[in-house]
Amino acid sequence: MEKFLLRNIENPNSTDINEYIKAGGYKALLKAVEMKPADIVSEVRKSGLRGRGGAGFPTGMKWAFASADPKKPRYMLCNADEGEPGTFKDRPILEKNPHLLIEGMIISGYALEAEYGYIYIRGEYPAAKDILDAAIKQAHEKGYLGDNVSGKGVRFHLYVHQGAGAYICGEETALIESLEGKRGQPRIKPPFPVNEGFLSKPTIINNVETLANIPYIIEIGADAYAEIGSPDCPGPKLYSVSGHVKRPGVYELPMGITLREIIYDHCGGIRGDKKLKAVIPGGISTPILPADAIDCPMDFVNMPKHGSMLGSGAVMVFDETVDLVKVCYRAIKFFEHESCGKCTPCREGVGWMRAILERISGGSGTAEDIDLLIEVSNNITGKTFCPLGDGAAMVVQNFVKNFRSEFEEKIH
Amino acid sequence: MITVTINRKKIELEKPVTILKAAGMAGIEIPTLCNHEMLEAYGGCRLCLVEIEKMPRLQTSCTQYVTDGMVVWTETERVVEARKAMLEFLLINHALDCPYCDKAGECDLQDMVAKYGPTTGRFAEGKRRHPESFEDPIIVRNMERCISCTRCVRMCSKVQGAYAISMVNRSNKTFVEPFSGGKYDCEYCGNCLTVCPVGAIMSRMHRHAYRPWLIEKEVDTVCSFCGVGCSMVLQVRGNSIVRAVPKKGAGSNKGLLCNRGRFGYDYVGSSGRLDSPMIKRDGKFQRASWSEAFTFIADRLKKIKDENGGSSIAGIASGRCTNEDGYVFQKFMRAVLGSNNIDSVASFGYAQAQRFFEGIFGQGVTANSMRGIPNSDGVFVVGGDPTAVNPVLGLQIRAASGKGVPVVAAGYMPGLMIFATSRLIPRPFTETALLSALVTELRDIKGISGKGPFDILINDIPSVSLGEAEEVCGIPSEDMRSAVDALSRMTNPSIVIGRDILQQPEGQACLLLLAALISLLNSRIYLLSELPNEQGLVDMGCLPDMLPGGRHLSVESFRRRYEEFFGVDIPSNPGMGIMEMIEAAHDKRIKALHVMGEDLVYNMPDSAYVKAALSKLDFLVVHDIFMTETAQLADVVIPSLSWAEKEGSYTNLERKMQLVRKAVEGKGMEEWRAVSEISKLLGFDMDYKSSVDIMTEIANVSPLHKDIAYADMAGGECMWPYKGEPLRHGMSLEGIEMPDKGSLLKKPEKDRIYIGIDKPLFHFENLSRNSAALSSIAPEPYMNVGKALADSLSLAGGDSVSVSTGTGSLKLSVQVDPDVPENSIMVPDNFGDKGAYTIMKWKMNSAIKAPVADATGVTIKKIKRAAEEVAV
Amino acid sequence: MLSENAVKEIGLIRNKYHDAQSSLLPALYVVQKEHGWLSPEALKEVGEILNVPKAEVKGVSTFYAMFRHRPIGRHLIQLCTNVACMIMGSESLLNILKERYGLEPNGTTGDGRFSLVVMECIGACGTAPAMLVDTDFHDNLTEERIVNILEKYK
Ligand SMILES: Cc1cc2nc3c(=O)[nH]c(=O)nc-3n(C[C@H](O)[C@H](O)[C@H](O)COP(=O)(O)O)c2cc1C
Ligand code: SF4
Ligand code: SF4
Ligand code: SF4
Ligand code: SF4
Ligand code: FES
Ligand code: FES
């Protein structure tokens, strides 16, 4: 497939605006500013683009909600928090193709009549922050940013805002709190960000990859775009593959490609030709799948039918040598560390699960511990304030469901 | 109309509310921990989960709004299991040391665990350790009990506006901390204690003395520390108050208190309380019986009256006393002693401002509820820091600011600085320049609508440009310009006025300019009131020219009414004001002074002068609860009852009459009772059996208080004129002098350092020195100084300095506060012989009959550096 | 005390937002870059500059794992131990750091050269195990490679 999101990134000077323009960059912007904002919104709607941040929410619908709220100013935020373990798909865009994101944001800002944009980038990506800052400066100099974008009287100012080590700030309302200089804890919804977001103004939040798709939609048109990938979930998708494959890395492939194709056709299969044991298909929060369940189409619509979720498209591959109880323990330790502490079940319950897993993993678990673990996880499920806590419970439930014997083996 | 069904009960609602509220209306209780009626919803504890038909997930009822046709279940098996699970989670990191915990018995968590189980958690690993923190004098912090509901933090930041504490860290390592990690250094309102559902933050004042089941009596009363008059409950065990708490939803405070109200009550049980009448013989006090003391007083007063006439006797009342005390006292002065020489410190500004505005607008008293401040479209504050003088009223201004209402703060008011949209801090005593510039601008923008006499007067006010004003008051023109912009957009703002605005050489001009602003902006007036019954002093006629019911002595028909009622003539000439009395005592024009509960030496300017004047009297009677500096000078001292030991009423600054109730027994006597006894001995029968009799008399004679009874006050919303005749005075601009431009633009003296009175949040007059709690928060006198002056004197925070005037000198510790006006220092007057009044000279402003600061300078010498002090 | 430069930089950051508190995180970064950590005095000062109450500043800064509230060594090793790195050998790297430098998580070497914190995923799972030293990424770590890399940080 022809690459779009990762186009040009092999070029050692890919971050330079002139190289980007040479490869066809900022053409979509010039086309977009000739369109009416509302037409861009409907074009995006027609394209069928779904948000790449994990939930797969239809982007056009979100944009339409925001356009309907008359409050001004509006803010356009880019979620570059990429904190889901296993996920590193936004990083190549941020580090190698920053102008694609910037172009996407300017078009989005124009379409949504938002004059200010912020890229909320995780603190763990210091290099990417500097690259973005430099790229923004260049875009300003070229007149793509500022008070008169491309000489069309459009205003768009773009800034980079660095997070500081909090996974929860990837959740959109926690991100807004964090951007406001507060503790990054999720807000009560409603009101939704599209109505009352950053500084209580209408705010549109999209993932890096989502925004990077916008110039493509403008460039080739919604109809052509909708032809790519799965019918209900079109477009190119970045899959970040890690673990025991021969060629880990970020792959731009059409939506709906199967896990098996990703692992065996694109990543060369399992390292050392060992046996595959399990795969986490969409970042650590998504349900783990056993080796025989990898013939599933990787998109937002189909994955739930196969017992997991697309999430961030972060494929983590485990070969036969892996101690999955330990993996589960480590995953829950992550959630404990990252719980924002707002709600009881997540703050207290996830730590409890971690304690039980620590026991089991360390060999001092008892026969009742597995059931207790499941019971605690059930007591969390459906009762948390935001999806983080639920996700942690789901991780445990699926590890035990699919690999119960491994847990039992640890108990003497 | 919205119809919801909760547990089969149908509820009809006008507008959407949360499920929790709707359930509450239907009498269905849903357990909550993080929710609190004074706070916005949070949705964290997840205790209030309920089942809603057609929704797969359980929902938190504190955040979910009802929709039409919604069907809710609050006690299904699923809900009960979830609740149990949440409680089990909470117990993971909760100490469960109920037997040692002061909260046991009124702990929400304990109650819920008892009701919904589990009895023991199954969490096997160790709980988090977090030793109890005793680093603060007032608040003990036990984070092993904290359940991270954040109620305290939301209270402190969103309601109190103190931002003193925060949740620190995240996940299960979260806990609550003040910035220092130890000492709170906060406003000590204790409102966080009110909202903490568990025993994680508690008052040290009653540590281990307080257990809910040990409380023998709870008495509904009002606070005695300022004119807001917050509703509170005194909890009593034996004969002592163990705790003062706000009453949920009651009074103007609606569940809030400030530090004084919450912690200051302990003066009542202080060992320094007077317990017997004392008569001074040969310069020494001797204990005496009640009748001995009363006879002694009556004999002496009679002699002086017979020899020199009633006008040689004067009386000073106190705003700490009740309406009943005040009424009886003025009756005693007028009817028994035949003297109109009665006044109080209310005449230092509060009464004057009221009277001045009355003359112009027909009404000068605060005629609006302070709860309305956040609903006005702007606030202008001048003459004192409301958050210190009337703390809970101050919170209304902070709340307004929180809602985005513009707040223009004119003057030094540290408690409002982060809330004010315009901060205008003039140089010392240049408020006239600032105010006249504002009037000039607003007069141009708003225009004078009517042709009334006051409109004409407003037109006559000399024009002062922003530039001219800047030159004098030092506030940049652009700051004043933006304040003018903000003010001009307001359509019915609240103007909050403190007494400091009068206490300066051009006090009267300030009042006139304020009246012009009030008129131009169509504003509601709020007068700050430092004393719990300051309005009561005015209403009860404890003024040299006013009779009870807010009517002038000079109104013939009114005076007659009282004369008939009392059965004696009342002198028709106004008596002396408080400052005149002191001067007259000095000149021996008055011979006897009867003081009802006021420490004149320290609560009036120029302590040495007051002391000398009092020493010259032939006879001084003092009723008080402590042997104050003033009582020391008396010939007879009558022990009084504190506010917690007697029945009666206070009138707050909103004109709300509220009951003061007896919680504990005292050894003194109500002022009204003692005065009636003396009166009887002087041949005037005052036969009051209880305070009820007095209120009945007031309700009979004062048109303003017509038919008011205690039962009305118990309802909590008894503003005069409850059933009586409203108070509207004929307007009169008589006596108002139009200031000339020169006097409006008087520059402060170069090289002079001025001294101003700081009104600290933590103290009340000189009484609060007897509160161990308040003294532990603010133990020593200090001087606030701005950055520039501190630098030029090379002073740093914590240094010791000596501050002198021609009158005396004080040793103070330095606090640097960038907002202190240029070339001035602010010193509190609450530390007795270490208070500002001891070194300040004041003079009488005859136009407003109030004392104004004699703007003399001070000299400041550094004694010690902060570091050296530590080393010593 | 913040340097004049830091105060100036915070002033510039302030202009990027319509509200002062929004510049809190970037302002804290400025200070941390200058001092290595966020002392109570620094938190207070930042609060004063931005008009954010100091307790609030503390509440915010302690929420975020990458703000440090204790002094650290000259170089900060942030080693990922999350799942991808774990299965690719980050545990043995921790052992090496302990053996070779006596470094424990949240510890600092006696000579003040290195401090170590273990990280959640740093977005380098495809080239795991990975770490950040100060602001430099290093990945595909082995026991040998990590020592060679660290030797470049003096
Ligand atoms: C705990 C949690 C973490 C999240 N982390 C991220 C993230 O790192 N990056 C991201 O783009 N979206 C993340 N999301 C999803 C966002 O909340 C939001 O849905 C997304 O940014 C919307 O953008 P999109 O519509 O373009 O996907 C997270 C959600 C949750 C609940
Ligand atoms: S589930 Fe609750 S505690 Fe966990 S991150 Fe979300 S809001 Fe915070
Ligand atoms: S006592 Fe008042 S000011 Fe102090 S922490 Fe509690 S709520 Fe805040
Ligand atoms: S101290 Fe009390 S009010 Fe504050 S968070 Fe803890 S439990 Fe809640
Ligand atoms: S505001 Fe006034 S009345 Fe209320 S508690 Fe404080 S001092 Fe008492
Ligand atoms: S009371 Fe509703 S979540 Fe706490
Ligand atoms: S798990 Fe270590 S970089 Fe992702």
Description:
- The complex is a heterotrimer of chains A (412), B (872) and C (154).
- Helix content of chain A is 42%, strand content 14%.
- Chain A has 412 residues and is α/β, with parallel strands linked by helices.
- Chain A folds into three domains: 17-226, 3-Layer(aba) Sandwich (Rossmann fold), CATH 3.40.50; 236-319, Ubiquitin-like (UB roll), CATH 3.10.20.600; 324-409, NADH-ubiquinone oxidoreductase 51kDa subunit, iron-sulphur binding domain (de novo design (two linked rop proteins)).
- In chain A, the strands form two sheets. Chain A has a five-stranded mixed beta sheet with strand order 3-4-2-1-5. Chain A has a five-stranded mixed beta sheet with strand order 7-6-10-8-9, sandwiched between helices.
- The longest helix of chain A has 24 residues, at 387-410.
- The longest helix of chain B is centred in the middle third of the chain and has 19 residues, at 290-308.
- Chain B is built from 29 helices and 36 strands.
- The mean pLDDT of chain B is 93.
- Chain C has a four-stranded mixed beta sheet with strand order 2-1-3-4, covered by helices on one side.
- Chain C starts with a helix and ends with a helix.
- In chain C, helix 1 packs antiparallel against helix 2, helix 2 (24-35) runs antiparallel to helix 3 and helix 3 crosses helix 4.
- Helices cover 44% and strands 12% of the residues of chain C.
- Classes of the chains: A alpha/beta (412), B alpha/beta (872), C alpha+beta (154).
- Chains A and C meet through strand 4, strand 6, strand 10 and helix 12 of A and helix 2 and helix 5 of C.
- Bound molecules: flavin mononucleotide, iron/sulfur cluster (4 copies) and FE2/S2 (inorganic) cluster (2 copies).
- One iron/sulfur cluster is lined by residues 155-156, 160, 162, 164-165, 184, 186-192 of chain B.
